[in-house]
Amino acid sequence: MDIELLVLGEDWRVRAKDEVLSYAEPEKGIYKKVLIRENRLENAILLGDCSGAARLQHYFERKQPLPENRAELLISLFNLGALNSGLSLDPAQELAELPDDAQICNCNGVTKGTIIAAVKAGKRSLPMLTAATRAGTGCGSCKGQVQVLLELAAGSELIEDPSIHYYVPGVPLRKPELVQAIKEQQLRSVSAVFKALANGKEDPQSKAGLASLLKIIWGKEYEDERDARFINDRVHANIQNNGTFSVVPRIYGGITSPQELRRIADVAEKYQVPMVKLTGGQRIDLLGVRKEHLPAVWRELGMPSGHAYTKAFRTCKTCVGSEFCRFGLGDSTALGVKIEQRFQGIESPHKLKLAVSGCPRNCAESTTKDIGVVAIEGGQWEIYIGGAAGSRVRKGDLLCTVNTHDEALQLIGRFMQYYREHARYQERTYAFVERIGIERIRQLLLEDVEGIATQLDQAIQEAVDAYRDPWQEAERPVTANQFAEVLAYTE
Amino acid sequence: MTISVSSGVSTTSRTTTTYHLGSIEQIPPGEGRVYMVAGRQIAIFRTRDDTLYATQAHCPHRNGPLADGLVGLHTVLCPLHSYQFDLRTGAASMPSCTALTLYPVTVDSSRNIVLQLE
Known about the structure:
- The structure holds 2 protein chains of 2 kinds.
- By secondary structure, chain A is of the alpha+beta class.
- Chain A has 4 domains: 5-97, FAD/NAD-linked reductase, C-terminal dimerisation domain (Enolase-like, domain 1, 2-Layer Sandwich); 103-163, Arc Repressor Mutant, subunit A; 166-229, no CATH class; 313-468, Sulfite Reductase Hemoprotein, domain 1.
- Helices cover 35% and strands 17% of the residues of chain A.
- Chain A has 17 helices and 18 strands.
- Chain A has helices at residues 53-62, 70-75, 91-97, 112-120, 126-133, 143-154, 175-184, 190-197, 204-218, 231-235, 258-270, 294-301, 332-343, 405-422, 429-436, 438-447, 453-465, and strands at residues 5-8, 19-25, 30-37, 40-47, 103-105, 110-111, 238-239, 245-247, 275-278, 284-289, 313-318, 352-357, 371-376, 380-385, 388-389, 393-394, 397-402, 487-490.
- In chain A, the strands form 5 sheets. In chain A, strands 11-12-13-14-17 form a 5-stranded mixed β-sheet. In chain A, strands 1-4-3-2 form a 4-stranded antiparallel β-sheet.
- The longest helix of chain A is centred in the C-terminal third of the chain and has 18 residues, at 405-422.
- Chain A is globular.
- At the A-B interface, α9 and β18 of A face β1, β4, β7 and β8 of B.
């Protein structure tokens, strides 16, 4: 379930003459409160229902005078469109009321006025509009608002761009039809797909998505063309804002050793790594490594890739669980290490972040992971799917409760494979689980109503068996000058 | 690390100098590589049909290394923020971004890269 929350301002101390308006519906988990000082919005909190957030944010940032009738302000925090209240309060009207200098896209700093002007200048489809203004191209959470502004400004001249439904923009097919065509025509490489299904027009924005799909469809039979990969997947490291790379070796379950730490420290010193940072996934990140140093860094670390640069299984965070914790109910570290050993490097439509917690105190934050496991009393393990704590916050849905590590590994793999086969490119599990519905996912994966469970288990096993550590390319580069920075011309 | 690619012959015509940069196979199909030529970094792209394009090495937006970008039929995407450029004209798809500087580049009959710089 989603938890909506907006907090504006920090200091809630009430001074003389301040006004505080509040509204609570404890049964529904809704709470709203605003603090008004000298007719300006000083603080606000919206919990459980963020209707009116855009308006409040605007009043807060601009410090504009509030409506004189305070009841109107309070009512504007609810979506009462259906009640025909006479107040213009649906999201479209709320956006319509915003002034032109209101910032819509907080990643790229794009205002309502810029978006409207672009629509008036002819960018009357969503892809054209986002490409021209960059609104919605960062974290993507404002895309809905950009769409509403487009509809408002374009009116009947709106251009429905069918490409927003395609799996990738450069091949005019939705995912199911694309998968069918790829299988029927035996298309095993990205260039073969462009030739057969896009009139030979190679679209750089479509390459990585097609590569991901083909690898999932064909496994070992996939014809890997390295130019179809994003740079991170060509050099197995994450590109940084100055063209250097970050290196995150795999630390299974977040458990390391003095010897490993010493090696990491030696490498960091030898290659003058500008920043050594602990990551949120319980690993160590070496930031600012030069591309041409990558093979030597990997070799000297002597650890496998942590895949912190790609759309794949990333990491499995753990708490210490029953090994040391006095509250631990289950061996969370052992399960976390098993999960990471089994699923390392498995590619998927988007990244997968996992966690295992040893008791319901949930110190590994399992309920906001793509897949999270929580030990409960009685030797059991709860499996949550579709959690998130990034640009969106979502509590995962409980898939099931199991009795053993092996059962947990099997169901995690089964869900992972279902996600790999059916999610849209770059669709995180939180969106995927919501789209399919937890009830339907339980029917498919637990009750096996369509008889696909065995096939999913086999397919994920094949992907597990096909794992190879990409950092072995330090010894065997795959393309010409794979890790070269600059080729010198000599007279 | 620098890799020596060729001991090319340079010929001069007025202000333009021709540089022979060695085999096209130094660049994998559909990718780009950076060459240091006469003190300048030049990104050279080889499309899957073996057409070559040469541009400035860094993106005008935030200095992204263009040779690391994804290449299409005649476009490149900067790897940092996905700004897209037409390799035939240098034009950016974002109106606010300046165009890339282009340099004439061809493949000769021995499949060597021939670059011209002023």
